[in-house]
């Protein structure tokens, strides 16, 4: 029995509020239950040095968590003067996941920076962030197209992400914090609406797991991502 | 004529949503028009080293702005590896303002950390932060009292803050961003509901100002703070 | 009774030694009693990136305190690897104060950096720094004019700064360290010799203060600034 | 055809030189072809603060690459003043992988720090590091047991790691640099000699991959890990 | 012919003003011609962690240069966030030189920190700093003895330092900046009044030098140090 | 009697393995007994900003020590976020020593970066590093000449370095760690095969030393450097 009473293959309620932020070209407040992430997409008409003059664009991401997004207050990374290894790992994952579904040549020499800031955390912040990031990115690119700055759509697919795990012996979908902190195994999947896998990261928290468990989690992830694509489509009016 | 069409002594709409954050002992989403600040109050049962064993508590504050809270994206302080001078100046002001109205002996050996994170900025983020911080602090202390950890109330007064300025020759209340960026003079006032001044910071942006201007801004600030105390009272059920 | 035996409206002895430093274009060793600050003005024929090509100059300031300028040794900011919030607040104030009285267009595309280094501290280091900075700046600009690099004088006024406070119930002028550390209220005023206010920063150290106290401190500040303008004039031969 | 001429399921030559370093409690120079990693295990009789007094030990890892381990010189992280996100991600992975096969209670209140320094890189540095780290750890723990400091063996299994990928449409084992830099898909597997999966990290470099590809890579990884366990056993005399 | 017109074995004028700083236990403003260094000695009744409980004291030094001590303004190390290699090298040398002439056991469990801040530079700042540091240290220790905190004098000798070099083919004493920046060879000597060498650091700036040159410079250094010991004795009344 | 049983003028065994590193233009694994340093020389076809357009090249060095190169593990400088004063001092010495024997004009506008990484330490790491650096540099420059990028040889001499010291009253050559940690006096000499001194750094560890001791150490250093030049010649086939 899951602490939340959810069925093994039951997601938390997904809410996506597009346009939450007034200034950003694209934005989305995404909620996976009590995990709330504010995502903005900022368009800049220039690319990082390594891409200058190559006729290609770039999509990158930064991630942060408000100090009291969690049960006990964490220290503020800006005050400590550096981002943790965890933060960097997550923001690299978000950027990589989005770049897989964007045609960077079609984007042209511009950069889109995705900021994912966790207002409240209850497990699964990176997967909520990726899922909401697609919405913010979609809106920002729709704006570029509406403004005539892009003629062809550089987005090739929807991308969503979800965590799965083995909790008390059962493979379950969309771990919340109580599950996450005691799961035996934990895996994050990033997938596209065409069925492809963009990233899989499975970790044994205590004992190693087997191939069967990996596949069971993958199947749950497909179920979860289906819900995410639907929520994304609704939020962006597609 | 103000860009917003407001009268010189007219505040923006104030909204204070108490309990916005699930985990913090006290929290408040405060909005002064399009300026939105999420404030949390975190209680820890220990004090900083310089106060250990003195039987006194401490109230401190940290301030941050999401990278895309503003018109153009600013760089993330955690990524740059340090907080700007402006950030430090603001968080020192917030902490100092709150300590003035708290009886630190009555608080006992515990620390309350106020985190003020600007989700969206349209001028006046520090004054909104201070005003909302009082609500978060009030709720956190009410909780300590309800839990029997405090018997006497350490809060001695309400504290609110507002900016005033001279815009196109007229003293106006509660500057928004378009006013703030072109005001001749700019002053922030922190005051209590007993009528006392906690902090005044007036700056000539171009030409020096005179005593009369200072007093005119102070009078407007009193009007604005009255509205803030009322909003605080409503948000905390007082 | 003030610890120093001074009358409430009595300044400490002001000494300003122009040309203290051999290499700088302008310099001044300023003493407000036992507070000694070495100020240099360095002229560079280029401006920061945000001003390039705009035909305007810039004046900026940096502030530091020698580790043993104070009663007990403080740690060296260069060794700690960062400037404190207090340091940044002060150097921002100094730069802002000087820019108010300089016509940056008339200065042309060059930058003047004011370095204020406290050799010995006894309260009021920031106000001594601003007051001495004007002398260093004046000398540096006189040199630019003598060298034919400037034809019109970009300095529009003298600027001075002084602290006031309420000590044992009485408003007093030019706080020294023993007063500063136990004052109920503390305010720094930056003013020009034309009578205008450039900056006012008043802080309640314990209980909030009232409008009358603010005005009383302002009046004392005018008295103190009068002495400062005279000392500046003498030091620069004006 | 692979650039190296290897068969798809053919590993590079593995060499493991135990005791390469004179001072460390355990050490190993591990070579996967032209990828050379020097691994040391350092035993300290104390644990990090979060474990003090809990009767448990800790295993952690740090990773670095000599500036000229690669084709073109990279900048030295110590000189830049921070470890890259990639470095942190890798050292977190190494530490996590080793902790999975160590009984931390049985280790007692001591910490073993694994340092993995890449002397020469040709792809697969993290997997070589993990595989060699097991040898260094095994030797260090054998020494603790020989010295009578441990009576029961806290190591529960061998752990090895290997990368697989899809190169020109074919799933291949143990990517070298030319393959790694142009692979369509890339996955690192950490597994134990009992057949369990400790970590799987698969990334689509260009297009998403499917479940079948993931399973094919997993099967290759099992083949590779078999060779690694044999080399580990030989190096440690087991 | 030396730029200054001095004879090859002629020092610049040495001035040592003891007690320059009001707060420090010992202080000295030392001038070697136009090189001016403010040195303070701060006594703390505790030692660094590695010495706790060993019944020994410690003497350490920190060095800094005001940004405009030099011909062109250098950047402030506190603002850059780190001390340069040159700064660290110099402060290590100063600390080491002083420790050689102090009986650390006789000093007892206390630390004396020497701060050397260059107000104006014209070559030879490190040697002036060491020479003045002895005066500040002497005064601080005299105070400890006068206060009855020390009964035996822990200072075993005077220590002085001077630079020599080969300028236009001639070995010269006490290089000023014009000589220093074009000398072929440059050596710093730290010596005691008993004739012993504490440190010698000779560097070929262009071509290697020979033993004879080294010895010629050493002889000049002895002459210079004689003058320094006399100035130290005078400044400390010995 | 030396701990190693060596005669006072006896070096440890020197081994120099050229071409140890596959990617670097020049490399050498240098061993002075149990001190092992991996040196690489990396050629870049650009110079640092201060040399651009001057038609001159640059040689610079970086130094590091693996955390467990020593008896007890030291912390990793990249993890601490800064290089120690010792590290900076050493790498400045290495760079300076090599620049003395290179004709930078003849090198042309390119930079050679020497990385010296200590794999195992037993005293004398800096002198081993300099001695091995010459080999790596020689190989890299031979490659530039073989590739036709240089026609004249910019290397003017061989450079070697060795430490000497006074151990139990006797001057000895090539200190190992047990000697180094208890030597009364310690000096590092950098010399060329033409007999010139490039750098001499002598330090009294306890009591000051005299001129005779300095000269005795210098004579030993000449013996040691002779062995080093021979080993360098052999390693580079000269």
UniProtKB/TrEMBL annotation, chains A, B, C, D, E, F:
The keyword GTP-binding does not apply. The keyword tRNA processing applies. Phosphate binds at residues 86, 124-126. InterPro entries: ExoRNase_PH_dom1, ExoRNase_PH_dom2, ExoRNase_PH_dom2_sf, PNPase/RNase_PH_dom_sf, Ribosomal_Su5_D2-typ_SF, RNase_PH, RNase_PH_bac-type, RNase_PH_CS. It catalyses: tRNA(n+1) + phosphate = tRNA(n) + a ribonucleoside 5'-diphosphate. Residues 10-140, 158-222 form the Exoribonuclease phosphorolytic domain. One of its GO terms (molecular function) is tRNA nucleotidyltransferase activity. Its EC number is 2.7.7.56. Keywords: Nucleotidyltransferase, RNA-binding, rRNA processing, Transferase, tRNA processing, tRNA-binding. Transmembrane segments: none annotated. Belongs to the RNase PH family. Phosphorolytic 3'-5' exoribonuclease that plays an important role in tRNA 3'-end maturation. Removes nucleotide residues following the 3'-CCA terminus of tRNAs; can also add nucleotides to the ends of RNA molecules by using nucleoside diphosphates as substrates, but this may not be physiologically important. Probably plays a role in initiation of 16S rRNA degradation (leading to ribosome degradation) during starvation. Homohexameric ring arranged as a trimer of dimers. This is Ribonuclease PH. The lineage of its organism: Bacteria, Pseudomonadati, Pseudomonadota, Alphaproteobacteria, Sphingomonadales. The gene is rph.
